[in-house]
Amino acid sequence: MFKIEEQFAFNGESKSLGQKREFEFVKSIAQKYLNAPEVPGGKSPFGIDASGFVQMVLKIAGYPVGRLPQQQINEGHKLQALNESRPGDIAFFKTSDSGLHTGIMLGDDRIIHVDGKVRIDQLSEAGILRLDTNKITHPLTDLRRFILPA
Fold it and tell me: Could you tell me the mean pLDDT of each successive run of 10 residues in the chain, 150 residues long?
């Protein structure tokens, strides 16, 4: 696979995972995943699922959370209503198979989440409104805050 004499180099920028970042950083990381394909159990830009997406984006921003949505929904600060939310909050939704779906709120009634691929759709009290089909696909069930104000 690799030859011993091969060399690899990293030319990117490194960030401390221990430093808690603000929403604009979270948003920039989340948007780097746009159009990454949905792969159950995935946690990389080559394939990712909804809870893996939330976990990885928050982890890079300094907010470690559980891997599964059933863990994530019990972490952070619970919000009572959508009008209390702000960009960076995590929304949870029911799925057709009695499971949970999750995504990161971007503000302006938009959410970035994984549904076939990492995508941005509309968010309302009813749930996620897919822009390509104009249908509610995931009913909203819970909201959590992980990113604290500066």
Answer: 59 75 94 97 96 97 95 96 95 91 96 98 96 94 87
Residue 127 backbone class (left: φ over 0; alpha: ψ -120 to 50; beta: rest)? left
Q: For the chain, what is the domain count? A: 1
> What CATH number is attached to the domain comprising 80?
3.90.1720.10
> Could you tell me which of 66, 53, 61 has the C-alpha nearest to residue 15?
61
> What is the rounded CA–CA span in Å between residue 100 and residue 131?
21
Q: Model's pTM, two decimal places?
A: 0.88
Rounded (10°) angle between helices 50-60 and 23-32 = 130
48: part of which helix (H) or strand (E)?
strand 47-48
3-state helix, strand, coil in the chain (%, to 5): 20, 35, 50
* Rounded-to-integer distance, Cα 98 and Cα 139, Å: 11
